[in-house]
Amino acid sequence: MTIHPASVAHEFAAAFNSRDPRAVDAVYEPGGLFVPEPGTTVTGAARQAANQRFLGLGLPIDVRPRHVYAHDGIALLIVDWTIGDVHGTATDVAREGADGRWRYVIDNPFGVSQAVPSRRS
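The structure assignment produced for this chain is given below.
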């Protein structure tokens, strides 16, 4: 049975909506990278903490994969998402595991949004 790469977005939404941080983290490869805000990347425990802040909003996420391009076990996903009144378009990369499940290698919920330059005094 072949699992479609878009399954990773739907699995993330189900985990997020369950409010279970371990289920959310299981959607990532162990070294998977998360972009909690434009210009910032985190992995490991910092990724878990960043996702916990989003879970702490207490609102469900809705995801709608717009484009999925897959080749040789790697997929690029463009996914529209909504959490309450906040919405965006993610640009994500996933890899198919030996078990057939797709997991995030890069989860960038803000897509092409630009990082805000820091102000220097």
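Interim note for the steering committee: The mean pLDDT is 92. Helices lie at 7-18, 21-25, 44-55.
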